[in-house]
Amino acid sequence: MKILLTGATGYIGKRLLPVLIEQGHEVVCCVRDKNRFPTDGVYKHPRVSLIEIDFLKDIQSSGSSVSSSFINDIDAAYYLIHSMSSNVKDFGSLEEKSANNFIKLVEPTSAKQIIYLGGIANEEKLSKHLASRKKLKRFFQQASFRLHQSRQE
């Protein structure tokens, strides 16, 4: 299976990549800054490739020419991007922009699945961060449904 892994240099991405490689998957790591991507260990595995995309910058619906050749045949995409560490007060709007750009990138591919890591939200009153993650959960559920429908047509 060919997998797009966003947030590959983040906490979860660093731990997920070795597992995906161990399971025999081909992984396209998508990072905002390729200079932060390690060059040793599992990161130099032959089934690991790297593309640099900043999801806070607009992405055309058809995907960027650099990335589309790497990801047009992906089977699944992990969305491990978040703006929690940003000093901006309204990181929710940054998360929405990143999510929208991610969907624009994934829509023209052959991906059948989006895997999104949200947060546990059992309380009615949520922090701004968890409220934003919950909102993105609904966004990705709708996007996944659209992807599934378009793949069946």
Fold and architecture overview:
By secondary structure, the chain is of the alpha/beta class. It has a single domain, classed as Rossmann fold (3-Layer(aba) Sandwich). Helices cover 39% and strands 16% of the residues. The protein has four helices and five strands. It has a five-stranded parallel β-sheet, sandwiched between helices. Strand 1, helix 1 and strand 2 form a beta-alpha-beta unit. Helix 3 packs parallel to helix 4. The radius of gyration is 15 Å and the shape is globular. The mean pLDDT is 79.
Keywords:
16% strand; 4 helices; alpha/beta; 39% helix; Rossmann fold; 5 strands; single chain; 5-stranded parallel beta sheet; 153 residues
Return the structural class: alpha/beta
Shape: globular
**Intertermini distance:** 22 Å
Strand content: 15-25%
- Report the uncertain regions: none
Structural domains: how many: 1
> Going by CATH, what is the homologous superfamily?
NAD(P)-binding Rossmann-like Domain
Mean pLDDT comes to: 79
Provide the CATH top-level class. Answer: Alpha Beta
- CATH topology annotation: Rossmann fold
Q: Provide the gyration radius in Å.
A: 15 Å
In which range does the helix fraction lie? Answer: 25-40%
Tell me the major beta sheet. 5 strands, parallel
**What is the N-to-C succession of helices and strands?**
EHEEHEHEH
